[in-house]
Amino acid sequence: MSDPDASAPEEVMWAGRFITAKRRGKWEYVGRARGIRAAVILAIDDGHVLLVDQYRVPLGKRCIELPAGLVGDHDADEDATIAASRELEEETGYRAARLESLGEFFSSPGMVAESFTLFRAHDLQKTGDGGGVDGEDIHVHRVPLAGLGRQVTAWREEGYAIDVKLLLLLGAGIIS
Fold it and tell me: SS3 for 149?
């Protein structure tokens, strides 16, 4: 069975620099503008996962996340692996000897058309403090995998938002 709105024309309701609000039939949703994509990096170093937190305006609070960044926001032809490598080092201060693509995923497909490519970082080397580029206030966390569930619970109790992608570490068995 197919949704009757699947063949309806797509209408752009509003377009900004980074997102576009659209309508198709009864559905209203947003997507990235100009073909911009995202890369998310799963970086595990010696039994510890690298996480970041930063203030997210739509949530009104800081959010615990896997390192991530935009692909193609400056160069439309940018390779996702290059963007993932850059973002990992900028945000966490670690460089990966190799990045492995684990595929494309959609985080909220009922309202957002955005996808992200998930990368697994291998053979990490610390190169700096991380924290992002000018204007970003990113905090780096190196959390033991064995205590991740307890740490996420503590962060939630402190009022942090938790990105849904952390469910990969908490229950999907992807870190084996």
Answer: helix
